[in-house]
Amino acid sequence: MADKISQTRTFNKRMLTSAEVLEEAVENRGALLQMNRFRALDRSAFSDLWRNTLAQIPTVFGRLVYLSSVRNLNSGRYEHHGLTLLFGEEEANKALKKSHAQSFSEWLEFDLEQQKADLDLYLSALPEDKKTVLEAWVRMAPYKNLLPTSVRPPERKLYLADLNAILEVFRNEYAVSGLDPDA
């Protein structure tokens, strides 16, 4: 237990603050705007999705949440009314599936500090307070449903290990208790 607390403290010392990540994002905004101009010339479903929807979501974790929310849990297909009207069901599904895989890869490329800062920024934008959300996540683990269907077992394991480490830090920061074994 003492070793786990020591690891958590070391992890906390290495964390970037949300303000530092936001400052970095502002610095990179120029590159993002230039990328968006390029995408504006592209008329594909993928580009339309990024230009009109995903570019508006400020966190990678938020994009994972959004993209998993448009996936039909019964069929595994992605359903987006607007994209389907413009590009057809198959093209819309392909664009959403590709974007989900791309966003997931982007999340895995982050180090733990970046993941924590991104998740902290995501949680800050929710209407519920962080402690309430974290308590629900401890009970229900909804983050396990955010993975794309194409994810391989090692990627799944890495995602869950990273997220569990970050959630452990948040649990300590916000005094969120673990699951009651008698519940």
Features of this protein?
elongated, 70% helix, 0% strand, 10 helices, mainly alpha, 183 residues
Describe the structure.
It is a single chain. By secondary structure, this protein is mainly α. The protein contains 10 helices and no strands. The protein has helices at about 1-15, 20-25, 30-40, 45-50, 60-70, 80-85, 90-110, 110-125, 130-140, 155-175. The protein is elongated, with a radius of gyration of 18 Å. Residues about 10-15 have low confidence and may be disordered.
The best one-word shape is elongated
Number of helices: 10
**Rg of Cα set:** 18 Å
Number of strands: 0
The share of residues in helices is: 55-70%
* Average residue-wise pLDDT: 84
Main beta-sheet annotation? none
- By secondary-structure content and strand pairing, the structural class works out as mainly alpha
- Give the ordered list of helices and strands: HHHHHHHHHH
Binned strand content: under 5%
Ranges where pLDDT stays below 50 over 5 or more residues in a row are 8-16
User: N-to-C terminal Cα separation, in Å?
Assistant: 23 Å
Describe how the helices and strands are arranged.
Elements: H1 2-14, H2 18-27, H3 29-41, H4 45-52, H5 60-69, H6 81-87, H7 89-109, H8 112-125, H9 130-140, H10 153-173
Task: Give a summary of the structure in a few sentences.
With 183 residues, the protein is mostly helical. The chain has 10 helices and no strands.
